[in-house]
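Repro:
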Amino acid sequence: EAQLVESGGGLVQAGGSLRLSCAASGFTFDAYAVGWYRQAPGKAREGVSCIVVSDGTTYYVDSVKGRFTISSDNAKNTVYLQMNSLKPEDTAVYYCAIGAYGCFPTDSWGQGTQVTVSA
């Protein structure tokens, strides 16, 4: 059964860091793109970052450029989102998603992990 599991969320002060993980099973991992999305209360879900696993191409929304870094460990079928210099406006539920047709994929989703940044 294909599955995505996020982990690494939590509560952090502004300026702090967190690393989110998205572990994939049931996929031929390096044939896909994996994206990170977030949804804050009362707001639409937005794409934050994405990686094309086969060639390492990455994408970032402007608001996180220079602060977030996406990477993949193909041996572990895991994609990471390193988040530095966190701001209160980064507070949201973060989801990963995978798909076969490039960034930003929407074929299968994880359950989400909460990130809360206090001022």
